[in-house]
From TrEMBL:
Membrane topology: Peripheral membrane protein
Keywords (A to Z) from UniProt: Endoplasmic reticulum, Heme, Iron, Membrane, Metal-binding, Microsome, Monooxygenase, Oxidoreductase
A single BP term in Gene Ontology: aflatoxin metabolic process
Any Pfam family: p450
Name of the protein this chain belongs to: Cytochrome P450 family 2 subfamily J member 2
Localisation per UniProt entry: Endoplasmic reticulum membrane; Microsome membrane
Amino-acid positions noted as binding heme in the UniProt annotation, renumbered to this chain: 684
Protein's gene: LOC107395370
Record-linked InterPro entries: Cyt_P450, Cyt_P450_CS, Cyt_P450_E_grp-I, Cyt_P450_sf, Cytochrome_P450_fam2
Alphabetized GO MF terms: heme binding; iron ion binding; oxidoreductase activity, acting on paired donors, with incorporation or reduction of molecular oxygen, reduced flavin or flavoprotein as one donor, and incorporation of one atom of oxygen
Family stated for the protein in its record: Belongs to the cytochrome P450 family.
Cofactor(s) required for function per UniProt: heme
Amino acid sequence: MVKEALVNQLDSFVDRPIIPLFHVIFKGLGIGLSSGYLWKKQRKFASTHLRYFGEGQKSLEKYIEVECNFLSEAFKEEQGRPFNPHYTLTNAVSNIVCSVVFGHRFEYSDPSYRRILELDNEAVVLAGSLRTQLYDVFPGLMKHLPGPHQTVHANYRQIVAFLRKEIEKHQEEWNPEDPRDYIDAYLAEMEKKKEDPQAGFNTDTLLICILDLIEAGTESAATTLRWALVFMMNYPEIQEKVQAEIDRVIGQSRQPTMADRPNLPYTDAVIHETQRYGNIVPMGFPKMASKDSTLGGFFIPKLAEIYGNIFTVRLGKDTFVILCGHKMMKEALVTQAENFVDRPHSSIAGRCYAEPGAGLFMSNGDKWKKQRRFALSTLRNFGLGKSMLEQSICEEIRHLQEEIEREKGGSQLIDPAGLFNSAVSNIVCQLVMGKRFDYSDYNFQIMLKYISESFWLQGSIWGQLYEAFPKVMDYLPGPHNKIFTYFSAIQTFLAEEIEKHKKDLDPSNPRDYIDTFLIEMKNHKDSDLGFTETNLALCSTDLFLAGTETTATTLLWALVFLIQHPEIQEMVHTEIDTVIGRTRLPSMADRINLPYTDAVIHEIQRFGNILPINGLRMAHKDTTLGGCFIPKGTAVMPILTSVLFDKTEWETPDTFNPGHFLDASGKFVKREAFLPFSSGKRVCLGEGLAKMELFLFLVGLLQKFSFSAPEGVELSAEGITGVTRVPAPFKVCARAR
Ligand code: HEM
């Protein structure tokens, strides 16, 4: 996996993320924590010049030979008594880098350099502690609080002041004709690179570069040598064999050289094993995905190419079994439907849903079965499959068309996200609350904003931190708290609607889901199947949330893809003109006569891939899947990306190609691996509704408008992934046809 990320995908994972603790001092400069162009230039300069002043020339070996003498003398002075070798060793190792960078070494007895080494060692140790890592999560807050992070910053400031003096001395004595060391060479490069400020050759970057070189060149090698001492003491027989080999090959009188290495295979093996077993940088340094290679989105399916279609991933304290590819998904969600029907515990849901096991999305067992069946039949009664719902959607299309006309004004530009959210949400509001909201309704708009933001927050690092450390996060400030504030505001919004419904409820004439539920409650006074008022608010919230974000996001992707492929948009226009014309509104009966448009809508859903990791599932009992034993209670992640982009199912998986859904004669064809709504017993409850909305809204919009990007703007298909994968915010030009 490490090879896959760092070697095979080296371009995707070359950058460093911003680590707030270090950013205060390093500011993205230098070599170790920089990214992009600056990193490339600084790294290239450093590797070339380290080679020039050391490697490849005799001088580095000479420096080390001299230092070895000093070190042996210092050890001898202890006369076999126990002593702490820490700082003598560290100073010796550090002197090698100092010779290359500053052109001189420091005496072991020099108190000022000893102090720098102590400060650095303390900073490195503290930086890895749990309390200091809190700084990375809450930098804004922690910078005002006492704690080890303050020591880390204070230590680095003293080290930086020390290094700045070295640079100033070099600047005073600088002779461009005779560069003595790394700093001199860098000063010359600063003169040369004046025209290229992005490369970052200035004294601030120099300072951080030498901090990087000194720190990395000191701590790491010195720590490895300390481990070597530990292992030699713990394994005296190995120490003896190394000594025997050295005695035989080099003897006691002359110093070693690199040319001796091939003749010391046992010693060489011991050094390698010391590095492996010492494991001094256990976590590596964090790398940042510079392209969209998200775990759930596209990276995990890549892993499937190496590990097969079923494997385990640990995220924090949680373990997930990952399922990839259409065949594995079918085996789990359809063939073994009963075994994988439940959802695992989620700390976020646990806090949101006041009643345990409430709602539609997260509930399990009999309660879920009953509530799902009730919701489906109620939605059917109020419209699905009936012209009533089609009429509501068509009425909403008229409102949407008017809003687009109003918003675009002279510039022709509209911001589609808010409009689509309002229009789509109004359909589910009709079904659940029996009413639609005006697009200018303040409260409604606030709810829509809360929905989008909480979907994003739940999938963000904040949501993930909450899932991993709920007890700690409960007490900490941060954006994760908004998830709960928003959820409870949405729930209150629905609870108020329920109160209103209770006042004018006519049991013989239910108007919507809320009315039907209130009536049903009377038949379930003694059951625990979730027919309570709290659960009504929670189920309504689920329908409102799931019914808004998903379909609106798919419509946004539709605009992105149709604008990126104007020839496809034109073919859809032509088909609609031929079959429906431009005056009457579309109906579901038209779908069969619009095979190309239908194929385009399916391809938008496939390529849009709006729920990349699907809903989580849990093994209901011990079972076997793909030959692997899955114990009861294991969380399972059926990755939808891996089905919608399955190389064995789609002719051109990585291309937007409506041809995936058309046969040679242009007829629409269904595809088994088309699973944006997932599959099995927990398949999306709103699939029928969503399909109807997507068809009617898209055809209604394309009948009236041609869409394009504003002059000079290229829309991106990269997407921002929270729980859903949404396009980055964009504006479009809507021209009336
Ligand atoms: C393009 C639009 C939509 C897409 C792509 C979509 C996709 C999904 C997916 C992938 C799941 C998880 C299924 C699983 O765990 O296997 C789901 C669940 C669900 N969806 Fe949708 N959905 C969409 C629209 C809607 C709409 C309009 C509604 C409103 C009625 C809705 C209501 C639900 C509910 C209530 C669940 C939970 C079902 C359960 O756990 O039993 N969805 N959806």
